[in-house]
Every structure is written in structure tokens, then in C-alpha cells.
Amino acid sequence: xxxxxxxxxxxxxxxxxxxxxxxxxxxxxxxxxxxxxxxxxxxxxxxxxxxxxxxxxxxxxxxxxxxxxxxxxxxxxxxxxxxxxxxxxxxxxxxxxxxxxxxxxxxxxxxxxxxxxxxxxxxxxxxxxxxxxxxxxxxxxxxxxxxxxxxxxxxxxxxxxxxxxxxxxxxxxxxxxxxxxxxxxxxxxxxxxxxxxxxxxxxxxxxxxxxxxxxxxxxxxxxxxxxxxxxxxxxxxxxxxxxxxxxxxxxxxxxxxxxxxxxxxxxxxxxxxxxxxxxxxxxxxxxxxxxxxxxxxxxxxxxxxxxxxxxxxxxxxxxxxxxxxxxxxxxxxxxxxxxxxxxxxxxxxxxxxxxxxxxxxxxxxxxxxxxxx
Length: 373
What we know:
- Helix content is 63%, strand content 0%.
- It has helices at residues 7-30, 35-51, 59-73, 79-86, 92-102, 108-120, 125-140, 149-160, 169-177, 183-199, 214-229, 234-247, 250-262, 269-278, 282-296, 301-306, 327-340, 342-345.
- The chain is an all-alpha fold.
- 38% of the residues are buried.
- α6 (108-120) packs across α8 (149-160) and α9 runs parallel beside α11 (214-229).
């Protein structure tokens, strides 16, 4: 049994205990639910049935939007009230709206809360949280904190999960964004899934609002993940390219080169040039243009300029009263603009010692890099 401290030693210990207790109390208070935020969340839930899916909700819509703005104006102070309601599984439609709202509050605490929803909740809440995390990453780059082993395991399991058709591009992208977690733990499942999806010969899931083919849209999710991982993916991608080449898998080799280009590896520039100029799939050319621009840098300018008069048009997301997009020329023009304006777009190449700069900063592209308009 440990000896009881003398009276002289007891006072400092008690003082230390009081100090620690005050710290814990302060931390708890910081996480306490704001009465104003709780009231706003409750009012939103009351108004939700009156506005959900209704174009003409009248005064209810006005009140709902006012409540949303007031809740958002509280910033991080609104988080405990939102999370407290999200902990209640009732009302999935309202909880989905709260997950979306959570994604509009800046800060790491919101990112952490969204990750927990992705890893522990069910659709539609988990999918909304995932969408919001990717949208936030477009603005501010990879996550600034490591996921727990359990959270990372959920994402890896989702990427590895066998399915009848390829997919999971959003989860793949999130896994690529986990910059504070071990590289190989993230890279290996992304690469394995990428190669599996490249080899897939069945029907790809259709995507509303995409200007590229379903296959390219699916594979593009992997490209964005490799782009987020940057130079940390160069060595393993180069090894995978050599392995595919030795097996004579030209399609796999081509897509791995595009992936390395998205990660800004200069070694694949020469291999990408013929894909940019003459690949029979117009949508493969689009992603190859972006990969080539990142890989070759300013050396890509002559090739990109030669594409400005390319007549290739898209066949997806076509509207009867609009001219079809000249997708190759437009993509080349956007890449030239980014190369000519480094002060606006920054260095799009992710170095292991530097944060990711969002490709969307400095102005929205006509043809977004995620394949949507």
C-alpha cells in the first residue's frame, strides 16, 4: 500500500488536483450544448416537414432559411447541438440535412465530426457527410489530423469490399485525403481497387450530371486520390507501371501512367503525350490532358496549344438548347490557363512536405476535375 503523503506534501497535490479539475471542467464547458444552438436545431426540425421536397413552402421556407443562417453564424459553437441531435437515429431525412449543415461550418472539429459520420452512420447521413468532406477538401486540401485505426479500417474495408460493379470512388478519394495516416496503409488498397476497376469489363454505374463516360468517371475518383497523395505515390506507382508493362497489360499501364501524372510525376510525361493526342476514347483524353499538364509542366504548353481547335464534343449531359461542349479544347484551354497563372492556382503538385493546393481555387472550371459540371 502506498504511503499517505504528509500534510506538507498534501497541499501541493490538492492544488494540482483542483487545477486539473478546472481544466477538465473548462473543456467540458467548451463542448457544452449552447441553448441558442439547441433551440435553433429544434426549430429546424419542427419546420423540416413543411419544407422537405416542397418548392413552394411559403413562410416556412423563409423561417427555415433564417434558422439555418443563425445556426451557421454561431460557427463551432453550433457543433455540440448539431452532434447531439445527430446522435439520435430518428428522422434520417432531417439528420441528412444536419450532416450537410455540419459541412458548412469551417474548422477541424467539423471535419472530425464528418469523418465519424462517414465511418459510423448509415446512408443517407454517411453519404452526405462524405460528399461534404470531399467538397471541403476541394477548398482546403487534405485532412489535418490522423484518422483512428478504427476509422481508417472502415475506409479500407469499403475500398476492398467486392462488388458486382466498380465504384467507391468517393471513399477512395477520402482515403487519399488522410495525409496524416501511413502512406502505404492508404496507397495499397487504393492501387489494388484501381487495377481491379481498370480490368472490369461490365457495365459501369451511370452518373447524373457528369460530362464524361461512366467508366472514366469511376476511374477518375482514383486519379484524384493519387493526386492528393502527391509525390509519396511516385515510387510505388512506378513499380506498378513496370509490373503492368512486364505482363503486357497495356490498358492497366496506361491508366497507371495517368495516375502518376495526376500525382505530378515527371517521368510519365512522354508516355502520356500519345494518349493526349490520339487515344480512341475522348474521355480518356480529358484525364490524360490534366495528367500530362501536371507531369510536364510548362513543357506541355505546345501540345496543349495544338488542342485548342480540337473539334471533339461530349455526348453526356447534353442539353437541347445548348451547343455541346468542345471537351478536349476546353480542357486544354483550362490547363493552359492554370499553367499561365501560377499565382492564382499555386503549385497543384502535392509534395510530402507541403500542403495540397486545391485545383479549384482561383475560379471554377467549366469542366470540373471530378467529372461533373
